User: What shape does this take?
Amino acid sequence: MVVNEQFTQTPVTKLAPTEAWRLLSAERPFVLDVRPLDFTTNQSYIKGAIHCPLVDLIDRINELPKNRPLLICDWTMKQSPLAAIYLQSKGYNVLGVVKGGMERWLHENFPSEARMLP
Assistant: This one.
């Protein structure tokens, strides 16, 4: 992934948790969580989210469905915008990133599931 000026100026839709929750029901997106593998602050995820650390995204891109819209999340929205821009550049339909990440999602009391990572 090459991050240049054009890359960083690509717009990314930021969805408040309320809007992301609505889209989860209406659009049934593929939910991608791009937190690092060693992230231990909190291991709560949007139910059904697939965890793929941002650093592994290029190698695992073929695991993502091109026929479903994507909703991307991380902990505090530091990595999800880069993932969204990259995936958009590869032709994926990215609905947006969860504004404020899982930290805000949990603060606003949206449902989650806890996982133990290897």
